[in-house]
Amino acid sequence: MAAAHRKAYDYFTLARFSDWASGGQRLQPLALPAWDPEICIQCGKCAIVCPHATIRIKAYDENLAQNAPKTSKWMTAKGSEFQTGMAYTIQVAPEDCTGCGICVDVCLVKNKKQTQLKAINMVPQLPIREQERINYEFFLDPPEYDRRLVRLNSVKTSQLLQPLFEYAFI
Ligand code: SF4
Ligand code: SF4
């Protein structure tokens, strides 16, 4: 009971803080994560750490990727977990991402040509917001990976599960 009261108090405090900090407006983050499929090793860590499930991974038929919007990104799914001929996409929901950057912090892959960059990087939100909104809509189209086939004992494969609770506030 005490824990439940504490949770309610925390929520109330956060909500009041949010009102004060935003002036009552819904704010957009200044930056969004941008994925680099050229160097990604498909470890899945960026997706598992997102507190809001706003960065998602999908493996789907490569034929469907042929109809992707020009700015949508995909690579061939790598590893024995996947059937041959599958595309792999990491996509952010731009209207729900808070820009916290945790997904970037956790990525361990460095770009050898530009060592300040990783396989996912925060970039200014405004120039890519509309294209990412379109890309996210496309991302939702291909069927979700069959939950019965997902191996739950690794980060890489567990992130193929469609999140059933999304965009949690706390
Ligand atoms: S920046 Fe934060 S909210 Fe946005 S996708 Fe990354 S971890 Fe999730
Ligand atoms: S954490 Fe980095 S390397 Fe791993 S899946 Fe995400 S972008 Fe790719």
What's the number of domains?
Answer: 1
> What general outline do the C-alpha atoms trace?
globular
N to C succession of SSEs: HEHEHEEHEHH
Alpha plus pi helix count: 6
Bound molecules: iron/sulfur cluster
Q: Biggest β-sheet, characterized?
A: 3 strands, antiparallel
Strand content: 15-25%
Features:
170 residues; disordered N terminus; 5 strands; alpha+beta; Alpha-Beta Plaits; binds iron/sulfur cluster
Q: Care to give the gist of this entry?
A:
With 170 residues, this protein is an alpha+beta fold. It has helices at 2-22, 45-49, 62-65, 102-106, 125-140, 155-158; strands at 31-35, 55-61, 75-76, 86-92, 120-124. It has a single domain (30-158), classed as Alpha-Beta Plaits (2-Layer Sandwich).
Structure commentary:
The chain is built from 6 helices and 5 strands; from the N terminus they run αβαβαββαβαα. It is an alpha+beta fold and 170 residues long. The protein is 32% helix and 15% strand. The chain has one domain: 2-Layer Sandwich (Alpha-Beta Plaits), CATH 3.30.70.20. One iron/sulfur cluster (SF4) binds next to α2. One iron/sulfur cluster binds next to α4.
